[in-house]
Each structure stands twice: as C-alpha cells, then as structure tokens.
What we know:
Blueprint: E1 9-13, H1 18-29, E2 33-38, H2 41-51, E3 56-60, H3 66-80, E4 85-88, H4 103-131, E5 134-139, H5 142-145, H6 152-172, E6 177-184, H7 190-197, H8 202-209, H9 218-229, E7 240-243
Helix pairs in contact: 1-9, 3-4, 4-6
Amino acid sequence: MELGLAGKSVLITGAASGIGLASVEAFAAEGARVLAVDINAGVLHAAISALGNEHIKAQVADVTDAQQVQAAVARAVAEFGRLDVVFANAGGAIPTPTDQQDLEDYRRIMALNHDGVYFAIHAALPVMLAQGKGCFIVTSSGAGLNSAPGLTVYGAAKAGVISMARSIATEYGARGIRANVIAPGPMLTPPVREWLSGIPQGYERFCKQVPSGRMGTAEDIADAALFLASDRAEFVNGVVLPVDGALHARLSSPSLD
Length: 257
Ligand SMILES: NC(=O)c1ccc[n+]([C@@H]2O[C@H](COP(=O)([O-])OP(=O)(O)OC[C@H]3O[C@@H](n4cnc5c(N)ncnc54)[C@H](O)[C@@H]3O)[C@@H](O)[C@H]2O)c1
C-alpha cells in the first residue's frame, strides 16, 4: 500500500526511546523527513546517529516548556520548509497508589502528558492552517479510555488529550486539519519492561489478560501512526484507535478465568 509519506515533514516527540524512536525509524523508512524531539540529549543523539539517516534531525526539547516546543516546530519548518505531521507522543508515568501521590506528582504528570500535547498542537496549528493541511497524532493510553490502578492522574491527562484531538478535528477539519489518537495497550517498551522486571511473573501475568495473548511492541504503534498520517487516512479524523490486542474490547464483567 502506497502511504504517500515520502518527502513529508514529520515532528515526533518522545523520540529517543520506545514508541517515539520506532516511529522515527518507520516514518524515515517511508521517505519522510523527521525531526526527532526529546528531553534526553545523550540518548537522543546516540539513537539518531545510530540510525544514520540524513533525513532525520534531532532536537533536544522539553515538551512541558511551551517555548522549547515552539522552537522545535520552528526548527522543523526551517529544516524541511513545512510541517505535515506532528506526533505528540512524549509521556509516561509509573503506577503509584493515588493516596501516596503528592501535588508535585500531579503537576509533573499533567505537565508531561497533558500540557505537552497541547503545547505541540498550539505551536504547530498556525503553521498547518497556513499550509491548508496538517495532521496531528496524539498518544493516549488505555488508561485514558478507562482506568488503571495507580494511574489516576495519568489517566485523566490521557483522557484530556483525547478530547483535545477531537476538538481540533471538529474545529479545523474543514480547513484541512486532521487530529487522531492512538490508545496503546500494554507495550513492551523500555520503561514498562523495567517496571515489569520488578514484579514476579509480571510479563506472563500481563500477557494472560490480553486477548491477543501478548504485549504490544513499539513497532505496533508506529505502524498505526504511519497509517493515520498517510494519504490513505485522509477521511479519518477525530478517531481514537486502540492498539491493544483487544484489551479495550473485552467485556469487563467478572469471568471465571
Ligand atoms: N509503553 C506502554 O505500555 C504505553 C501504554 C500506553 C501509552 N503509552 C504512551 O506512549 C508514549 C511513549 O511511551 P514509551 O513506552 O515509548 O516510553 P519511553 O520511555 O520508551 O519513551 C518516552 C520518551 O519520552 C521522553 N520524554 C520524557 N519526558 C519528556 C519531556 N518532558 N519532553 C520531551 N521528551 C520527554 C523520554 O526521554 C523518552 O525518550 C507515552 O505517551 C506513554 O504514556 C505507553
């Protein structure tokens, strides 16, 4: 299937690891020009230079700082002449019992998972409107669709970005803007791998609960992002796509398993 991504200008946040890094690789493999944005300078530069592709540029930026996000968008436009796709993907949280979280945790989790997405949309939207075309993809989570123990704040942030994307799709769809959401299930990316390694039989216990029988990979999400960004998804706007091995589809009534 021809995706029509060759030559497109793509900005991806959280690009030094996991889903973001797999997406940088996937978009570049389709011939896109990619600005890989991450807060972790050392890991980002090492990861991007390992890919060895002159069409991938690295930009160190903290998505919780609106000025740094603005600078990243300006860099993408300066490097590539336009900005076709923004994949607002940076995020994450370690499950912690809600009664053990303080307000600093609340602010930090909201800043990364909620504000960071809005700052990317806010910075890139004028560029895309001037072009008459643009595409946002936002990484939410199963925790944003439903709930997960220890992820009260994270879930609220991830639910918020779903609303943000839907609003952008409806408010600006007629002006060529698309905004869609990917809601990953449990993915075996570095932070989750590390977290599960500290839990007895963590990986096996997770897999048992996923109807497809495995955890997802960063590449599963990157593939979904390629489709949503592609010309093949021109009429796909304002949707939330769970990529979770049917975890979200499962009836959540008591079972005898
Ligand atoms: N892994 C999962 O199971 C899972 C499930 C649902 C949703 N998600 C979401 O997927 C996205 C990617 O997660 P991942 O598992 O690939 O994690 P990851 O830790 O492998 O990658 C996240 C990247 O974001 C970067 N980052 C962190 N704070 C940043 C900031 N302030 N500014 C810029 N970059 C920053 C990190 O340096 C890291 O490179 C996140 O939004 C996460 O919430 C992941």
